[in-house]
Amino acid sequence: MSLTVADLARGAMTEFQEKLRQQHEESMHRELEALLATANKEEAEISRKDFDGFKKLFHRFLQVKGPSVNWTKINRPPEDLIQPYDRIKAKGLPDDITTSLNKLVVVKLNGGLGTSMGCKGPKSLISVRNENTFLDLTVQQIEHLNKTFNTDVPLVLMNSFNTDEDTKKILQKYSHHRVNIHTFNQSRYPRINKESLLPIAKGMGLNGANTEAWYPPGHGDIYASFHNSGLLDKLLAEGREYIFVSNIDNLGATVDLFILHHLMSLPADRRCEFIMEVTDKTRADVKGGTLIQYEDHLRLLEIAQVPKAHVDEFKSVTKFKIFNTNNLWISLPAIKRLQEKNAMDMEIIVNPKTLDGGLNVIQLETAVGAAIKSFNNAMGVNVPRSRFLPVKTSSDLLLVMSNLYSLDAGSLTMSKKREFLTTPHVKLGSSFTKVQEFLKRFENIPDMLELDHLTVSGDVTFGKNVSLKINPNAFGPTKTNFKYCFKPFRKLKKEDLKVNN
């Protein structure tokens, strides 16, 4: 068989690309070793484990080109792989649910800062309800669980180098609560220059020129860092079998006894190693990852993996009807097995950033849910929307601070006085972005029980005893469904705010 000029050119290009890849990896190795030389012995030992994980990610980054999915191979998951929550709940609970709880660990992802809401320090320390922080509410929930069922469910916080010190200081106040709290740190990876593909760090320090040189590599790092910390083995030795993982800012992510019982009641040969809680997609969730069937595996599909020609199709609420809440139930023995076999398969998220000085860098990250395809008998459970109550913005904060929700033992539930099942759509303007500014603009949090839709723009403040509600007569008897947009530069009085939709 004769080779054409095109074949020879492709071969030469492939050889060139392979040499270039090897060159990049060798240069990266040298740079990382030089960074480790600036650390003390203890720090170098921890960082070497981090760098081992980073080098694996970097190696895959250099090899993978183009979209990570073939759109023609995507199928909807079979019905039995996405179970409705009501079917799980219909099984009821056994008399000895405490036995199951004794095999559970609650893990909260606590690596994020509150900077997007104008706060310094860990986001988990922002007050969200009755002076309670995200962390306060989490501890209250688990303490209530432990007291109610006479059990000992531990709380594990996955911190980052950004949140670890401040979090550990605050944990002292929970020493008399009936909750055993453990922490471990996710890895610290070096940001790399977009052009040279080399670390921008000049040493292992976090201050000065290195302030922007490091990043926590996404929550997909939980598997490696949990394993490396030794905490995974410790919990397995205690007889723990499952972790319930969720974002600490999702106030709907409480321990669900029915899902736990479902996991524990399956025969050993069909034991489910991974459950992802999904919920029905609305227009507000069109960018959320969804579950698909791909090459005979259940797989998480994120918008970043979708070819540009199919993005609108991905956002469709008719074709892809569910999205990932990031509430996950994962087998501890399975994590250990996959880590030891180096078989945890997660797509790389390439996150480009521009630093304050204008330098373009790349962060290589992974998502915890992307590992679903590596686990045996994985499935999704389509849960009620109430299990997805994230607080990402001041608009979300207004909702959870209002009388829409009742607080009991750290858990928020929709008020029984609200007639509608859906949560109001609230959009506050840029004047409300920072929590301190947000709080100054409300003398009291308004009554929102009858609210459907609220948009506020400009320099607006709210007085006392404000009620936001549907008023069908406000714009004539026929217009019962309108959106009232508050205009700027005046203080809203009680009589102004009898209408909204």
In short:
With 501 residues, this protein is α/β, with parallel strands linked by helices. It contains 13 helices and 27 strands. This is UTP--glucose-1-phosphate uridylyltransferase.
Q: How is the main sheet built?
A: 8 strands, mixed
Roughly what is the average pLDDT, rounded to an integer? 89
| End-to-end gap | 72 Å
Helix content: 25-40%
Number of helices: 13
Topology, number of strands:
27
Radius of gyration: 25 Å
Uncertain runs are 474-491, 493-501
Assess the beta-strand content as a share of residues: 15-25%
The strands making up the biggest β-sheet line up spatially as 2-18-12-15-11-3-6-7
Note the quaternary state here.
single chain
What overall form do the CA principal axes indicate?
globular
Structural class: alpha/beta
Catalytic activity: alpha-D-glucose 1-phosphate + UTP + H(+) = UDP-alpha-D-glucose + diphosphate
Family: Belongs to the UDPGP type 1 family.
GO molecular function: UTP:glucose-1-phosphate uridylyltransferase activity
Organism: Oryzias sinensis (Chinese medaka)
Supply the key terms.
alpha/beta; 27 strands; three-stranded antiparallel sheet; 28% helix; globular; 501 residues; 13 helices; eight-stranded mixed sheet; 23% strand
Task: Give a structural overview.
The protein has about 500 residues and is α/β, with parallel strands linked by helices. The chain is built from 13 helices and 27 strands. The chain has helices spanning about 5-35, 40-65, 85-90, 95-100, 135-150, 165-170, 220-230, 230-235, 255-265, 310-315, 330-340, 395-400, 435-440; strands at about 75, 80-85, 105-110, 125-130, 130-135, 155-160, 180-185, 190, 190-195, 215, 240-245, 275-280, 290-295, 295-300, 320-330, 350-355, 360-365, 380, 405-410, 410-415, 425-430, 445-450, 455, 460, 465-470, 485, 490. The strands form nine sheets. An eight-stranded mixed beta sheet has the order 2-18-12-15-11-3-6-7, sandwiched between helices. A hairpin with a 2-residue loop joins strand 19 and strand 20. Helix 1 packs antiparallel against helix 2. The protein is globular, with a radius of gyration of 25 Å. The termini are far apart.
